[in-house]
Prior knowledge:
Blueprint: E1 4-9, H1 13-24, E2 28-34, H2 41-48, E3 53-55, H3 58-62, E4 69-72, H4 79-88, E5 92-95, H5 103-116, E6 120-122, H6 130-140, E7 147-155, H7 165-168, H8 171-174, H9 177-193, E8 197-205, E9 220-227, E10 233-239, E11 247-254, E12 257-260, E13 263-266, E14 276-277, H10 293-306, H11 314-333, E15 337-338
Helix pairs in contact: 4-5, 5-11, 6-9, 9-11
Nicotinamide-adenine-dinucleotide binds next to helix 1.
Amino acid sequence: MKSYKVGIVGLGWVAGAHLRTFAALPYYEPVAVMSRRKLDPEEIRREYGVNVTVYNDYDRFLAHKGLEIVDICTPHPFHPDATVKAANAGKHLIVEKPLSLTFEDSKRMLEAVKKNKVKTSVGFWIRLMSVTKAMKSIIDKGLIGDIYYAECDYFHGIGPWYGQFEWNIKKDMGGSSLLTAGCHSLDIMLYLLSEPVEEVFSYSTKNPNPVYAPYEYDTTSITLLKFVKKGLLGKVASVTDCMQPYVFNMNVIGSDGSIDNERFYSKKIDGLLDWSTLDVMRVDSGDVARHSYNEQFLHFAECLDTGKEAINSLEAAYETHRVIFAADRSAETGKPVRISEFS
Ligand SMILES: NC(=O)c1ccc[n+]([C@@H]2O[C@H](COP(=O)([O-])OP(=O)(O)OC[C@H]3O[C@@H](n4cnc5c(N)ncnc54)[C@H](O)[C@@H]3O)[C@@H](O)[C@H]2O)c1
């Protein structure tokens, strides 16, 4: 595989984990960092083991000689403009989730990426986890039969102990519980089921614990999904204000069996007395040091080499975001919302 020159925008928590992953893979060469702060390249070299040029101007950063991939790691509202500009400059893109805080912004990101025919990888790394691969494979082989229900839930308290708390508490920065983090659960449900959603209904609330009081929006939501496929329903809970260890839940129920994360049962397999446990890596931490960026970036390098679209492409993420925007509108209006309102 070829080695790709990559530049990072916004050197914060997630960007550090990306940079460490790039440095460890032979398929990437980090060459530039774009920051609003004055950063010392020597300090970056000491911390991450990479030689980069630091820019404070995005146009100059994009003009860095040989730059092929732009990796956008700034807070949510800054993703759209940076993406559109990089796509128009012909750069391939890694974009952190969520894509944007509005449907219109997600749409213009998709348009720019399509117009410029650049390749994309959105931070939905859970699609690349081994537990997800095993679940998808079991579903696609028909081992649990005809699926009629799924639950995917995100429980992770994003309190003051997280660096992003400072900006994430603001409505115009964090957006909503689903946008800021629960999007992982919604995304994985859509990926596992591979079925379009027709309508959603959502309620939202927040933890009364004063530690979460600074949030300007409801930090817990529950969304019910009705799919176009007759009889198929889903539920996504996004609880970003809990007081418990991290839990990521994926549970898919079919006519002949179920998968509950790494636990599998099927009437199609003879001799099973109880749940069987799959030897896979679970999604079990909110710490970016334990996220599978390795898998995400290996997959992206392979896509760039072969011209394939990534399974976590911006186009795929756009479909997830249409459902998120519909769910958030439902929570605001108290009415069910059809996904066709976002097209
Ligand atoms: N894929 C995942 O699982 C995952 C995990 C964590 C974070 N993220 C996403 O990565 C992005 C960055 O999150 P983070 O936790 O690294 O945040 P962070 O606050 O640690 O880093 C943000 C970086 O952006 C820079 N920045 C530029 N303009 C800014 C502004 N106006 N306000 C604040 N910072 C500004 C900051 O200087 C900082 O270097 C977010 O969109 C977040 O949702 C994704």
